[in-house]
Amino acid sequence: MGAPQCESVARLALCSPVRADGYAVGTMQFDVPNPAYTGSLQARAHSRLALKIAFGFVALLWVISLTNWGLDLDPEVSSIRPRQWAGLPGIVFAPLVHSASST
Question: Which end of the chain is flanked by fewer CB atoms within 10 Å, N or C?
């Protein structure tokens, strides 16, 4: 730890010791994006691809939900059944196909 580093913030003096790498102890470090990359065509293409994948996944969940509702599928078929080989696919499909509990 080095000598305290002081800076004036909103008329308050904040002093904290400085580490060997030049950062003050207890301060947060933020990565500043490189403007040359963030404004590039490749970055925009990656952003569009990420949005397409996210919206595609949400659309897939809606299609599954509407198919389940429209065909009145039995959620028992896709459920997890312990100690049965037929219940293994339910590990993947049970979160997607479920019914509202009627009380």
Answer: C
